[in-house]
Design goal:
This protein is α+β, with helices and mostly antiparallel strands and 511 residues long. The protein has twelve helices and 13 strands.
Length: 511
């Protein structure tokens, strides 16, 4: 997020001075008293919390190896350090530790066992809450502070503050399911998945995604889930499931199998009647589900906008693929397979944003095709080696039959090598998630020509296999025709022409 300076009146209070006891002084009029302005306070979104970058290396030697006598309970944190008053230590289901000041409804993950860090957190917490209350009073706003959380994060940055520490924060309003700040905030970092954003109503969906997936996932302890909310999630999951069953081009997130798994998770939530008081783990699962359907997916599909994407492979920016000169020249030599592949890629990667379900399905299909291509190329390679060993072919020189057969052998070997490399790349690229797919595809994405380079790369193994078959077919035909047996030549020639005609007809009709 872009950094914004703190407002000068962020923590102003109105007080009235009174006369000391047994004095003749008159009470003063109400005046505005400004607290000191703390430097280095900046807004952030929930993604700015450094949860996955905070791990501190631990030495391998075991300092403590004994347990005292009659230790029947174990502490949740190191008993040698003192937890500051008002704060509670909590552990997330994933394992990370964070701290909660329940009275002030404030969360932080920084180590407040350190007195200096604790003092800084306390100062920033008081300062921001005072600023929020001051703004509510000055602007006469209605905001239920019992449904507002504050999250603080300290980051090292000498360029921002002379002390080298800057405080980043965000407030959460549970009633409206959003994040908010006391600064004018530039949230372009969370809008990178979309272009052409023109309304706050659209930005709202991105902020809600931050609220659900990150804030709820990171700090679920002060959240309450109503029965209406659980029913809302169930209804949305059921609608998405039916949409996928009835349409192969649904813009809803996931697929039927994934959606059924989500429904089983929601059905397993444990609560009490109208208001759910579910455990932290249930909140964690619900946050992940809610982000996908109420946040990120709606944001990237422009829900509520006049350009809403109702079909998964529909562009909202009017973009159309234009073949480059490279594609026009190369595609015929690759049997036009790149034209087919580029269409599949663009259906899974729309407006530079991957569809997780479609991308995973396409990736799995490409893996199977590459493995099948490698198997056939290996067989063809063996056939060529055996063909070259025939006495009528191996005449001691370098005949046309041998040269063409060698060409078939080389193309088969090329298909195997490139196919193995692509399969290896797919298998070693993690889980090949949509985020990884986006990062990989954006590197070779062209503004006009899209992913045609990737389409060409994936088409080469199959094309080399096809050329290998053609070269072998030509070599075999030449060898057979050179036998000077008119009868067998006529039979084989007729068969060759019929097979060639059928193959050509099938390819033309399919294309």
């Amino acid at each position: 997020m872009a950094l914004q300076p703190a407002p000068p009146d962020l923590a102003a209070d109105h007080v009235r001075y009174v006369a000391p006891p047994r004095s003749d002084e008159m009470p003063g009029s109400e005046i505005e008293v400004h607290q000191r302005i703390l430097p280095g306070i900046f807004p952030m979104v929930a993604a700015g919390v450094l949860r996955y970058d905070r791990c501190i290396d631990r030495p391998t030697d075991n300092v403590l190896t004994t347990v005292p006598v009659m230790t029947i309970t174990f502490p949740v944190h190191d008993p040698s350090v003192v937890l500051p008053e008002g704060w509670t230590t909590l552990v997330h289901p994933e394992g990370s530790r964070y701290f909660l000041n329940e009275k002030q409804r404030t969360f932080t993950e920084v180590n407040i066992f350190d007195p200096q860090i604790h003092k800084g957190i306390e100062d920033y917490m008081q300062y921001l809450w005072s600023g929020l209350k001051s703004i509510i009073k000055q602007e006469n706003r209605r905001l239920d502070l019992t449904q507002v959380d504050l999250v603080l994060e300290l980051k090292s940055d000498v360029a921002i503050d002379s002390s080298g520490i800057a405080c980043y924060y965000y407030f959460v309003n549970h009633n409206s399911r959003c994040l908010f700040w006391l600064h004018k905030s530039d949230v372009k970092d969370v809008l990178r998945d979309c272009k052409g954003i023109k309304s706050l109503s659209h930005i709202r969906l991105a902020i809600q995604a931050q609220y659900w997936l990150l804030h709820w996932e990171y700090f679920p302890d002060l959240c309450l889930v109503s029965q209406d909310h659980v029913d809302e999630i169930k209804d949305m999951l059921m609608h998405a499931t039916c949409d996928h069953i009835t349409s192969k081009r649904s813009s809803a997130l996931g697929d039927v199998i994934e959606l059924k798994d989500y429904i089983s998770v929601v059905n397993g939530l444990k609560g009490t009647y109208a208001t759910y008081s579910v455990n932290t783990l249930s909140f964690f699962y619900l946050a992940v589900i809610d982000d996908g359907f109420l946040g990120e997916n709606q944001f990237t599909n422009f829900h509520g906008e006049d350009c809403v994407r109702l079909i998964s492979d529909k562009t909202v920016h009017g973009w159309a693929y234009t073949p480059s000169l490279l594609m026009v020249v190369v595609a015929p030599f690759l049997f036009l397979d790149p034209m087919t592949q580029v269409q599949k890629l663009h259906r899974a990667f729309v407006d530079e944003t991957p569809s997780p379900a479609r991308w995973n399905a396409l990736s799995l299909k490409l893996k199977r095709q590459l493995k099948d291509s490698n198997l056939l190329a290996t067989v063809l390679l063996s056939v060529n080696v055996g063909f070259l060993d025939i006495s009528t072919v191996d005449t001691g020189g370098r005949s046309a039959i041998q040269i063409i057969s060698y060409m078939s052998l080389v193309t088969s070997l090329g298909s195997i090598i490139l196919g193995m490399f692509l399969v290896w790349h797919e298998q070693t690229s993690g889980d090949n998630t949509a985020l990884e797919a986006a990062s990989f595809a954006l590197k070779i994405h062209d503004e006009k020509h899209g992913l045609e380079k990737l389409a060409i790369i994936y088409s080469i193994p199959k094309a080399l296999l096809m050329w290998g078959m053609i070269f072998f077919f030509v070599a075999f035909s030449i060898d057979w025709c050179s036998s000077r047996d008119i009868t067998s030549g006529a039979i084989v020639g007729t068969t060759v022409l019929i097979v060639f005609g059928l193959i050509s007809y099938g390819i033309i009709r399919i294309r």
